[in-house]
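Structural prep section.
Before we set up the soaks we want a predicted structure of the protein with NDP in place, mainly to decide which crystallisation condition to try first. Input record follows.
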Amino acid sequence: MNGNPAAPVAAGETGQELRSGADWEYAPAPESRDIVTIRGEYGLFIDGAFTPPLSGDYFTTLNPATEEPLASVAQAGKADVDRAVASARPAYEQSWGQLSGAQRAKYLYRIARAIQERAREFAVLESLDNGKPIKESRDVDIPLAAAHFFYHAGWADKLPHAGFGPDPAPIGVAGQVIPWNFPLLMAAWKLAPALATGNTCVLKPAETTPLSALLLAEVIQEADLPPGTVSILTGDGRTGRELVAHPGVDKVAFTGSTEVGKEIRRAIAGTGKRLTLELGGKAANIVFDDAPLDQAIEGIVNGIFFNQGHVCCAGSRLLAQESIADMLLDRLKQRLETLRLGDPLDKNTDIGAINSREQLDKIRGLAAAGEAEGAERWSPPCPLPARGYWFPPTVFSGVSQSHRIAREEIFGPVLSVLTFRTPDEAVAKANNTPYGLSAGVWTEKGSRILSMAQRLRAGVVWANTYNRFDPASPFGGYQESGFGREGGRAGLAAYLHG
Ligand code: NDP
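Run finished without errors. Recording the tokens verbatim:
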């Protein structure tokens, strides 16, 4: 495994000479952080303006790759939640909610274009605050966030023709709470469909990753949306709790842990609020013996090591057909030795930092449980930076279904490898989970793909690929992975009466 920053060019500093073996190192290729201006202190975005919190409280957001403070951010208290919800109601009743679909689309297109125009700034900020590699924030998070606004802008004036009845009505004020793994993208997943359908929004980003949502607030301000249409309340879980319980909120949309999802469901039971929950997962990535193995290896790597495995639909359980399991594992290990862990702002980095100390502790704890329960642990040789939160790509083989690492969501770069002999056994093992968000199938047989997709209890089944996202494609789960869909026509339904 290559550490980052890479070793300096050894032979032939000009790079003209042919070099051998260990000398083939990438030179550091850091993205400049100069494009981003991070303010010392951030207020809340309420009623179209940035404002200090009535609570008077602030917290510090860190760069997880270095543990350096990035900014001081407002902690919204109850009175701040009241203010934001109070501004969302008249915006819904008198301004935003009264606009035609074509007018709403105009604003959403503006936001989408502004995200594109400021894409580099967003990408660098996201990698600084979250720890994810710049190539992922640059090539995945930010373009997809813009795509969500473009896609939903396209829907805004077509709702009466989309099968929701002739005059589909928005729900009202949406309270939206998002996690830290895809901070801007999750904000886009929440805001774009809600706004396209005529709702107003109060959004709470995660405590450890508030900065891209605050930059989005700037974009929204510049796009000149009517005040109160979108408020962004930074804060920790207490802010989220106040927001979802607020009587002025008509619809709650949450992405995060199953535990908090359950708490929210209990908190709003009987209130008549509409609810969608996008929660955890423990997806099976199933590789049959006829699979295109080189592609499958890339899919396995992408499935669990993309975004350090901080992905609800991560392919965290590899189910390998027994006849190819040893060979697959050997080739996978060879591939993992080429991954580069280190500075998230380096364009060559594959694995960035773990988002927080808490998450690192959780990953370490579950990995230790894997060893204690008898699974075999392997990581490529991988020097970790001295400061910051880091965890090497890790593979557990010899995993049985009862192991905690096969049952619990680790939400880190840790793969559990299990084997199967027949398709029936693969289905039984894949479905042996309280979750049901996603799955992957690798085989050259189309008929097998279709039969597996029918039998797997998962909201999304990828075939011969993994972690593909598109705003037109509905995303969501079964069982403890939550309910409701985001994206596509189904995602619009979550924000409309009917
Ligand atoms: P949480 O579910 O705690 O956080 C998600 C969001 O909910 C955050 O904005 C959080 O605020 C907020 N929140 C926390 N408590 C409440 C509450 N009682 N009412 C309303 N909102 C609340 O996830 P964590 O960040 O703590 O991660 C814990 C585990 O959850 C991870 O290890 C992972 O397994 C799983 N997870 C799954 C995700 C998914 O997409 N499926 C995403 C994130 C986590 P704050 O950030 O301040 O805590």
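Observations: The mean pLDDT is 95.
Flagged for discussion at group meeting.
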